Amino acid sequence: MEQLNGKAQSIVWITGASSGIGFALVKRYLQAGWRVIASARSEGELADLVKQDSHLSFVAFDMVDKEQIEPIRDTLSQLVPHLDCVILNAGTCEYLDLEDEKTDWQMMERVMSVNYFGLVNSVDVCLPLLKRASQPLLVGVSSQAVQAAFPRAEAYGASKAAIRYFLSSLRMDLNADGVDVTCVLPGFVDTPLTRKNTFDMPFLMSSDEAAKRIDQALQGRPYEFAFPKRLSALLWLGRHLPKWWLGKFAPNKHDNS
Ligand SMILES: NC(=O)c1ccc[n+]([C@@H]2O[C@H](COP(=O)([O-])OP(=O)(O)OC[C@H]3O[C@@H](n4cnc5c(N)ncnc54)[C@H](OP(=O)(O)O)[C@@H]3O)[C@@H](O)[C@H]2O)c1
Hints:
This protein is of the alpha/beta class. 42% of the residues lie in helices and 17% in strands. The protein starts with a strand and ends in an 8-residue tail after the last helix.
């Protein structure tokens, strides 16, 4: 067991760590003295940090590739004896374009494959190592997009809703083993993923602020953590006043009333 200042050093595996929220989480956990294993397909923004900090290891992982599940599990097992916490944060976003004459319906499968099946594959990788920890916590990153419908988000929203249900069911099945499961629902965070958006993003925050809020919330091991609360309130209205929500964000072009 690795030691830090005489205490056992906690160990976290973070996916989607090469940019955005994942990269900010890596920095935060390192500052707090954790041993961090960071994954993504490429090192990206992690490159300098990996060279500088011996408590950080990068393990390249394309979570869509099922052939990588066993080798990555072996690599993690060689690096650490167990995982106290796993944050499955990696994800992508593409929008459906029905105005395009050749709508790319394959995109639905692509997004589901990365966001949902990629997360499932990642759970397959880490579960044995999580179960070896004394108080393990498994975290998956969904989105506030699941709280009310957004235009063009058919693929993204469905994949994040699938993650939310998957985690809530997994929580039931892992309870007996003492593995806590948390689903995180971020609002709009300024990252490479959202910089492509052309619409207004209410209550947008930095990735460092998002990582701070996630880290603080995870200490209480909630079943679910949605933030910021102001966005949750707006989406609650959208869910309970669906006609108002539809008219506000997707007005009927032929309705002149
Ligand atoms: N930003 C927001 O407003 C927001 C809101 C709600 C939820 N979220 C969720 O938060 C998570 C992080 O998003 P972000 O905004 O920080 O986006 P980001 O900066 O684009 O980060 C996405 C991360 O996922 C990794 N990734 C993508 N495809 C992968 C694959 N096939 N295998 C392994 N890793 C892969 C990327 O690394 P590589 O490309 O190097 O693989 C990158 O590290 C996502 O799940 C996103 O849906 C974000």
